[in-house]
Write a structure and sequence with these properties.
With about 375 residues, this protein is mainly alpha-helical. The protein has one domain. It contains 15 helices and two strands. The longest helix is centred in the N-terminal third of the chain and has 31 residues.
Length: about 375
C-alpha cells in the first residue's frame, strides 16, 4: 500500500529531527567559548563547551513541551466536543488514552532516562557522533536479556541470531574507534587519545543498559495504564527536568578533581557548572543555536516517532531510526570526523542484527522460498523432451 502525503511527512520529520538531535548536541560539544573572567584567569580562556548535565536538562525541556502540546490539544478537543463538533481521526489518535492514572508512575522512567542520557552525552564528548549513534544499537541486546529476566519472555533462535549480529557489529565499531587515525595537530580535548575514545564508547554502551531498564519498566508498569504516548513522553520530561534541575545545585559544589577531567573541563573540576555554561553561551551564540536545535528537535522527534508508530508501524520506526544513523555518519564524516572504513561493516552488522531481531527479513525470505518452490513445481510438471 502506498504511503499518503501525511505519512511521508511524518517519516521525513522523524528522520530529519532525529539526525539534528545528535548532530546539534555534538556541535555544541565542538564549540569553544570563554567563561566569566571574574571567576579567574582560567575561566576567561576559551574552552570547550563541556556541560553534559545541562544538555540533558535541555533534552527534558524538549520532552516536556510534548506535555504542553498534549494539554493544548486535549482541552481544545474538549471544547470542540462540548460545542457539538466531531473530532478528526488524527486528533482522536493523539489524545486517545486513559486519564485516570497518577503521573508519579513516570518518575522512575524519568530517572532512568536522566541517567542514561547524561552518560551518553558524557560519552559523546569523548567519541565521534557516528560511533555514538551506532553504539546505541546495543539497547537491543540488553532489552532482550532484561525482558527474559523481568517480563518472563522467551527469545527465539531468530532473535538470538539478531543479538549475535548486533554484538559483532558493536565489536567492529569499537575496533574502528581503536584504530582510528589521529591528527597530531588536534588537542587532547578533541578526542585524540585512544583510551578516552574507548572510555566514551563504554559509557555509551553502559547507558544502553539503563535505557533498556527504562523500556522494561515502561512495559511492565506504565503500558497497563494505556496513557497517550505524547502525554507519557511529556510526563517523563516533566519529572526529568525537575529532578535534574534541582541536582544542578549540589553538582556545582561537587569537585571531581583532576582524575575526573574526562567528565568535565571546568577549571575547578566542578561536576557541573551551570553558571559557567550560561556565560559561555553568551560569549558564543552558536552554542545557543546548537542547544535550541537539541531542544526543538527532540520535541518534534518524539512527536514524529509516536505518529509513525501509530500511522505506519513500529517496524517502520525502527527502519527510519537505522537510516538516521546513516545520515549522522555521513554528516559527521563530512564535517568533523575522519573516515574509518571499518565503521561500514560495523554498521552493516548492526543493521542486519536489528532487522533479524525484529523479523524484518521474514517476509522477503518467505516470498523467495515460495517463488523457488513454485519454480520447482513447474519444472517437475513439465514433460521431458527425451525419455
Amino acid at each position: 500500500m502506498a504511503w499518503t502525503v501525511y505519512q511521508l511527512f511524518l517519516a521525513g520529520l522523524m528522520l530529519i529531527t532525529g539526525s539534528i538531535n545528535t548532530l546539534s548536541t555534538k556541535w555544541a560539544d565542538k564549540c569553544y567559548a570563554s567563561g566569566n573572567p571574574e571567576y579567574g584567569k582560567a575561566y576567561a580562556e576559551e574552552r570547550k563547551f563541556d556541560h553534559p548535565f545541562l544538555q540533558s536538562v535541555g533534552m527534558f525541556i524538549g520532552e516536556l513541551s510534548c506535555l504542553l502540546v498534549f494539554k493544548f490539544i486535549f482541552f481544545a478537543s474538549k471544547r470542540q466536543v462540548n460545542a457539538g463538533k466531531e473530532l478528526s481521526a488524527g486528533t482522536k489518535r493523539l489524545i486517545d488514552g486513559n486519564q485516570g492514572f497518577h503521573p508519579i508512575v513516570f518518575w522512575p522512567a524519568a530517572l532512568c532516562d536522566m541517567c542514561g542520557t547524561t552518560l551518553m552525552y558524557i560519552g559523546l564528548n569523548m567519541t565521534d557522533a557516528s560511533s555514538f549513534q551506532m553504539l546505541r544499537g546495543a539497547v537491543i541486546v540488553f532489552t532482550a536479556l532484561l525482558s527474559v529476566t523481568f517480563l518472563g519472555r522467551s527469545i527465539s533462535k531468530q532473535m538470538w541470531l539478531g543479538i549475535l549480529f548486533v554484538i559483532l557489529g558493536l565489536v567492529v565499531v569499537g575496533l574502528a574507534d581503536f584504530f582510528q587515525p589521529k591528527d597530531p595537530n588536534v588537542s587532547f580535548n578533541d578526542v585524540t587519545d585512544t583510551n578516552l575514545v574507548i572510555t566514551g564508547d563504554l559509557l555509551i554502551v553502559i547507558a544502553q543498559i539503563i535505557t533498556a531498564s527504562q523500556m522494561v519498566y515502561e512495559e511492565k508498569y506504565v503500558s497497563r495504564h494505556s496513557v497517550a504516548p505524547l502525554q507519557a513522553v511529556g510526563w517523563e520530561g516533566f519529572f526529568g527536568f525537575i529532578t535534574l534541575s534541582v541536582l544542578l545545585v549540589p553538582m556545582y559544589f561537587i569537585q571531581v578533581g583532576p582524575g575526573g577531567s574526562f567528565i568535565t573541563s571546568d577549571p575547578e573540576y566542578r561536576l557541573e557548572n551551570a553558571l559557567d555554561a550560561f556565560y559561555q553561551m553568551g560569549s558564543n551564540p552558536l552554542i545557543i543555536v546548537a542547544q535550541l536545535g537539541n531542544v526543538i528537535s527532540i520535541a518534534f522527534f518524539n512527536f514524529a516517532g509516536i505518529s509513525v508508530t501509530r500511522e505506519l508501524s513500529a517496524t517502520t520506526r525502527m527502519v527510519l531510526d537505522s537510516l538516521r544513523t546513516v545520515v549522522i555518519w555521513v554528516v559527521s564524516v563530512i564535517i568533523w570526523d575522519p573516515f574509518v572504513p571499518l565503521q561500514i561493516p560495523g554498521f552493516l552488522l548492526l543493521g542486519l542484527g536489528t532487522a533479524v531481531y525484529n523479523g524484518l527479513l521474514n517476509k522477503p525470505y518467505r516470498m523467495l522460498r515460495n517463488r523457488l518452490c513454485r519454480r520447482e513445481t513447474e519444472l517437475d510438471d513439465e514433460e521431458p523432451i527425451i525419455n
